[in-house]
Design a protein that fits this description.
The protein is mainly beta. Helix content is about 10%, strand content about 30%.
């Protein structure tokens, strides 16, 4: 199991201890920790005895165990705590990890307890001082048109060689343009303004298109 704790700040971690050979939580009468039972390793370093041995906190008919860790013991990115009863084992072996936060040397640099910048120096002003909507940049009509044109005329936007504007022109002609030659091998469909042939199709006797020429200009 992994716990999140602030870097270089004394803390308490509460975990259950399982009685040896059974599935019950151990209570104070089941286990008396001694030096060497509980070890700490900081950032993968050599194991050492913890400063404070865990104590049982009665919880009705059971108990949880309080591991009280010092600020010095929390001065690492990752802290591993192991429990292995050195005498005749009264409890099962146990291990838990602590990942620290809120410091440049912590596992997580961010500090959720810092209400202004979460401990990140790159957030150099309070988030609440952000510009209001009224002060944001407003595009001129010409700029808005330029943005729209850039989308409409994006090369290969629909298919290879076909822009959005071109596809819309073809669609408009197919839906609303005049048609000529419907009973002949060559069918033409005019643009909506009736100034040019937008689509010219060669068709067979069944009306199936065998060749299509388009003008999207």
């Amino acid at each position: 199991m992994v716990f999140w704790r602030k870097y270089n700040t004394a803390t308490h971690v509460y975990v259950p201890m399982i009685k040896r050979g059974v599935v019950d939580f151990a209570v104070a009468a089941d286990w008396t920790p001694v030096a060497g039972d509980v070890k700490i390793s900081k950032d993968g370093g050599a194991a050492a005895n913890v400063t404070n041995l865990p104590t049982a906190i009665t919880m009705g008919n059971t108990a949880m165990w309080d591991f009280s860790l010092t600020a010095s013991e929390l001065s690492a990115a990752k802290i591993a705590i192991t429990v292995a009863d050195s005498a005749t084992k009264a409890v099962e072996d146990q291990m838990f990890l602590i990942e620290t936060y809120g410091h440049a040397s912590a596992e997580w640099k961010v500090d959720p307890g810092n209400s202004t910048s979460m401990g990140l120096t790159t957030l150099d002003v309070a988030i609440s001082s952000r510009a209001s909507a009224a002060t944001q940049q407003t595009l001129t009509p010409e700029e808005r048109n330029s943005v729209a044109d850039a989308l409409l005329d994006r090369i290969d936007a629909i298919e290879a060689g076909l822009t959005v504007r071109g596809a819309m022109r073809l669609g408009a002609a197919a839906d609303a343009g005049k048609v000529a030659g419907a009973s002949t091998p060559t069918v033409t469909i005019r643009n909506v303004g009736d100034t040019k042939n937008r689509i010219t199709a060669t068709v067979d006797a069944d009306g199936n298109r065998t060749a299509v020429t388009t003008d999207v200009t």
